[in-house]
Amino acid sequence: MTLAPYASDPARTRGRRHPEPATPHRSAFQRDRDRIVHSTAFRRLVYKTQVFLNHEGDLFRTRLTHSIEVAQLGRSIARPLGLCEDLVEAIALAHDLGHTPFGHAGQDALNECMADHGGFEHNLQSLRVVDKLEERYPRYDGLNLCFETREGILKHCSRANAERLEAGEPGGVGRRFLDRTQPGLEAQLCNLADEIAYNAHDIDDGVRSGLLTLEQLEAVDLFEHFRQSALRAHPQLAGRRLLYESIRLMLSAQVHDVIDSTAQALQEARVASAEDVRRAATLVGFSEPMRQRSAALKQFLLHQLYRHPQVQDMTGRARRVVRDLFGVYVQSPSEMPEAYARADDLPRAVADYIAGMTDRFALREHERLTGQRVLAG
């Protein structure tokens, strides 16, 4: 496929931190994708949760299935825009590698524990995983990914952490947070595909769990519009088939909206190269009507699902697990593997160890160390 002039071209990558010769049959971004898929951190995503914890059911989304859905949506949008699908896929598959067990509850708890030690940001942790924590190659730590892939993984970053990154890698992936410039279009696209994916699958998981109903969702304009479309085409449709068809139509409409809106933004900004993209405003996005409808859906999910008493109860227990583990490991480092126990920066090593855990391993460790069974593992 011929790339658009404003796409990230693997033949013109800014390269890897440790230079490597090119290979004859795979581009630089294809190699990045393959390294991510074969990483230990990627395999762990199958037992890390989104909203519902691992023990609550086998059919709820995990970080792994979410990442695959983001990659699928991203590629569907990238192709008609002439963007680099391989880079989109690599970023999408790696963007959650640094997420803790127990979803955002685990992240928030670990950030609290690390408040006096630089905090914890899951995007920064994902970068740390691919830059340092993976141990697969003889000449360097991490996966030695291309700049463009690493840039896409680090979609958010505090100024303090950006300054630390810049000090260690001048002009590197932290620089744009200081310059207020944009990442490549593929990175922008993955950021939006992430949002589209979790809004859709949280509707599905919310209804599956019984915490949301189709009747409640009638109040959400974006969903209700496509539920009505599904019923007009299939008047007898009901239950899960109606839910799935409504979500399918909603996803398709959002994908087409992003493609059309982004194409228009690119034309109006008159970008002619990947460097032009960096100096422009954010170019990948919804049309304003779709943005408003998507924002309303996010607000609905926040109040009706993420803050549901049952979800809050589970996430409260999950936070306790993370806090307890952190306290034990700081006081008794020998309870961790030797490489973590002997690290110079013990709090950061503890955070690395906990962030790498799956839900069920964290629960087993908590029960082993405290004698308490907080959640069924």
TrEMBL record:
PROSITE patterns: HD. GO terms for biological process: dGTP catabolic process. The keyword Cell inner membrane does not apply. Residues 63-199 form the HD domain. Keywords: Hydrolase. SUPFAM superfamilies: HD-domain/PDEase-like. Residues 1-30 are annotated as: Disordered. InterPro entries: dGTPase, dGTPase-like, dNTPase_2, HD/PDEase_dom, HD_domain, PHydrolase_assoc_dom. Transmembrane segments: none annotated. GO terms for molecular function: dGTPase activity. Belongs to the dGTPase family. Type 2 subfamily. HAMAP family: dGTPase_type2. This is Deoxyguanosinetriphosphate triphosphohydrolase-like protein.
